[in-house]
Design a protein that fits this description.
The structure is a single chain. By secondary structure, the protein is α+β, with helices and mostly antiparallel strands. The chain has two domains: 4-8 and 124-244, no CATH class; 23-117, Lipocalin, CATH 2.40.128. The chain has helices at 24-33, 129-147, 157-161, 164-185, 188-197, 234-244; strands at 4-9, 40-44, 47-54, 57-61, 69-76, 80-84, 90-94, 100-102, 111-117, 152-154, 200-205, 210-214, 217-222. The strands form two sheets. An eight-stranded antiparallel beta barrel has the order 2-3-4-5-6-7-8-9. A five-stranded mixed sheet has the order 1-12-13-11-10. The radius of gyration is 19 Å and the shape is globular. It starts with a strand and ends in a 7-residue tail after the last helix. Residues 1-5 and 12-35 have low confidence and may be disordered.
Length: 251
């Protein structure tokens, strides 16, 4: 079935950094401090989180949240750094002198964070084909029960049966997609637009994370080679749905 609408590149919603005039001092600070983000466990007020290096990106995890978020680094003034979700929202700011501030939905103004210890980087679990298929049914049932949104999740089960890495990332990408849809349809306008236009979510292998429509099927691709960075976060999914269905959604 031909694609309809414009394919949205997920994990690439970050706006290009604004240009600014840098003094000789800020340039020197930037050179000295840009890489000074230390992985580990952190405390920020009543919140804790773990931060791990992932190539030129970072992984952040919060207690009680099963999702592993990929953060993308961007320059900030005076040698600082901003770490952003794939939706474009800033989650961590690192000052040139090393101070770290965490931004969350509950604390949009930011909370100072301090490193409290080391962390163990996450790794994909052993996922069976039954696990993926069971997740597809569970997520559909959850959305129907909690949001009154009726849809099915699907994938190429034959391809997944013979590839361990593909199964693990498909499972992760599907869980993120379901959380992103749930996030999107909490908005009444979003729920109406979604229910009117989408009946199925299909997870597909691709060379980058994309989202596009084929009839009433929402196609979401994931890239096994890129690991965690090869699938969109729930925030990225919700943000992309807002663009695709013309419903404003905070990032």
């Amino acid at each position: 079935m031909p694609r309809t609408g414009t394919a949205l590149l997920l994990c690439a919603l970050l706006a290009a950094p604004a240009a600014w005039a840098q003094s000789e001092m800020s340039s020197r600070l930037n050179q000295e401090q840009m890489g000074d983000i230390e992985p580990g466990t952190y405390s920020a007020g009543h919140m804790t989180f773990t931060l791990d290096a992932y190539g030129d990106k970072y992984l952040i995890r919060f207690p009680g949240d099963p999702e592993i978020y990929v953060l993308y680094a961007d320059h900030a003034p005076l040698g600082g750094r901003a770490l952003k979700y794939d939706s474009g929202a800033v989650v961590i700011r690192v000052a040139g002198w090393g101070g770290i501030t965490l931004y969350t939905d509950a604390a949009p103004g930011g909370v100072p964070a301090e490193r409290t210890g080391d962390s163990l980087p996450p790794s994909p679990g052993q996922i069976s084909l039954f696990d993926v298929q069971n997740a597809a049914e569970d997520e559909a049932e959850h959305l129907a029960y909690s949001r009154r949104v009726h849809l099915t999740f699907n994938a190429d089960w034959n391809a997944l049966a013979g590839d361990t890495r593909m199964r693990a990332l498909c499972f992760d990408a599907m869980e993120n997609a379901a959380r992103g849809i749930d996030r999107f349809v909490t908005n009444a306008q979003g729920r109406t637009a979604f229910a009117r236009k989408i009946e199925q979510v299909r997870m597909e292998l691709g060379n980058k994370p994309l989202m596009f429509m084929s009839g009433k099927t929402l196609n979401i691709t994931f890239d096994v080679r890129s690991g965690y960075a090869g699938r969109a976060s729930s925030r990225g999914i919700a943000r992309a749905l807002g663009q695709l269905l013309s419903v404003p959604i905070p990032n």
